[in-house]
Amino acid sequence: MKISILIMNAYGMGGTIRATLNLADELAKRHEVEVVSVFRHRDRPFLPYSDRVTLSSLVDLRPDSKKWWRVGLSSRIKKPSTLMHPDERAYDNFNAESDRALQRYLAGLRTDVLITTRAGLNIAAARLARDGVTLIGQEHLHFGAHKPGILEEIRTWYPKLDAVITLTDADHTEYARMLDGHPTRVRTIGNGLPEGPRPQSRLENPVVLAAGRLVKVKGYDRLLDAFAKVIEKRPEWRLRIYGNGTHADKLSRQARRLGLHNNVAFMGPTSDIEGELAKASIHVITSRFEGFGMTIVEAFAAGVPVVSFDCPQGPREIITSGEDGVLVPDGDIDAFADALLSLMDDPERTRRLAENGRRTAERYRISEVADRWDEVFAALRHERTA
Known about the structure:
Elements: E1 2-7, H1 15-27, E2 32-40, E3 54-60, H2 70-77, H3 96-107, E4 113-116, H4 119-128, E5 134-139, H5 148-157, E6 163-166, H6 169-178, E7 185-188, E8 207-211, H7 220-231, E9 238-242, H8 248-257, E10 264-268, H9 273-277, E11 282-285, H10 294-301, E12 306-309, H11 314-318, E13 325-328, H12 333-344, H13 347-361, H14 366-385
Parallel strand pairs: 1-2, 1-4, 2-3, 4-5, 5-6, 6-7, 8-9, 8-11, 9-10, 11-12, 12-13
Helix pairs in contact: 1-14, 4-5, 7-12, 10-13
């Protein structure tokens, strides 16, 4: 069976990209798999990917690519997208050229299964994909994070999909309610963790780690406020934040204003988050919402306990508070600082949480995740032939 996975930009960094490449690699052990990136802006992906997977792109943004037609491309890139709804959270990334490329790709699909990985692409597939292709829309955002306009399009077009895959049970409930009465199947399949040995933290370094895009939704402004309270009592601890994004300068100014210049380091993006986690003793999630929270599972697998705000939806479905991590009431800065201090002051508790976290991570082995995808493929294929 041939499986195609359509993603906005496989060449960047982020949880959706990492999870997609991990899934593609595992599925490629069982099927013919290609990842199709709408955009390409560098020669090779930032994150590693398997040579079992075919990778291609629809719009090449590299400065030296196909110069002979870039004049025409430039004019189309400057025109806004009409295929994507303005309430699609990544709307500004799309344009008239990506519309044209997507329409051409979807109309000429030569695959058995198409998996799309965000609302705008899910809707585009439902509208434009060639008949005969099994369409599966994967949701990496939680239901409540969608803006009203895109949510209305979701209600209109998702019934045209064969299946919707959510990352959490809470989102499954929302989509199942919305799609009640339609033939579209709704299933929950979390992100998977590649198998094999990985570096382990010794829990000896006074380092707290955060990782993700430097954007408002990740809540690093809340993290800096909490960490400022922590270093009043534990000035030897350091916070390392990995990632880049539009809020980088704003966060740097906030860190200086809070007097954190000696305690906080903005490390930039990394392609080896597992190696960096192994150098830390606590991992933190301060997001305003999370679709899943892949770094939680990665931290658990590295033997690092997690302190997270109990934001919608992902963390509460992965972390069992007090057993393998700590959930803090969403937005409570003082409680978050207290939770960090509690672990810093209790190495035995930290080690117990870390050991339990390793066991939790076992539930997210990529082979088991791929098994659940195969069950969906089989069920949909059976329905088509029945």
